[in-house]
Amino acid sequence: MTIGAGALRERLAFDRRVEADDGYGNAEADWVEQFAVSARVLPLKGSEAVMGARLAGRQPVIITVRASRQSRTIAADWRARDTRSGAVYAITAPAANMDENGVYLDVLATTGAAA
After folding, report:
1. Is residue 81 part of a domain?
2. Which of 37, 38, 61, 102 could be 8's S-S partner, Cβ–Cβ 3.0 to 4.6 Å?
3. How many domains does the chain have?
4. What is the 3-state secondary structure (H, E, C) of the chain?
């Protein structure tokens, strides 16, 4: 996969859910931003699974980011948030080195899912 720097047009923040004590002995979870990077968000189309997700009000996407120490930590229980539009993406699979060159990582995510 050949991607130029100009293709990474979105600015996404990656958040991890962290549990904290509320001061009364109860645990409450909140999203904590881990880092923000330039990214490309590419909607998936065509397969039967994608069409089924669309009928359920979700849109599967592939998020592409530059490989880095930070981006290699992205896990399936994180979320991505567009810092400009506010769109939230529920990450469904951890970052994977799909170009096999270690330059970019692809993250499978879904919009419209409860976050």
Report:
1. yes
2. 38
3. 1
4. CCCCHHHCCEEEEEEEEEEEECCCCCEEEEEEEEEEEEEEEEECCCCHHHHHHHHCCCEEEEEEEECCCCHHHCCCCCEEEECCCCCEEEECCCCECCCCCCCEEEEEEEECCCC
Residue 6 located in a structural domain: no
Q: Which amino acid is at 32?
A: V
Q: Which domain holds residue 84?
A: 34-111
Q: Is residue 15 part of a domain?
A: no
Residues 55-61: contacts with CB under 8 Å, at least 24 apart: 56/112, 57/112, 58/110, 58/111, 58/112, 58/113, 59/110, 59/111, 59/112, 60/92, 60/108, 60/109, 60/110, 61/89, 61/108, 61/109, 61/110, 61/111
Confidence of residue 55 (pLDDT cuts 50, 70, 90): low
Span 85-104, pLDDT tens digits: 999 999 999 998 877 788 99
Predicted structure pTM score: 0.81
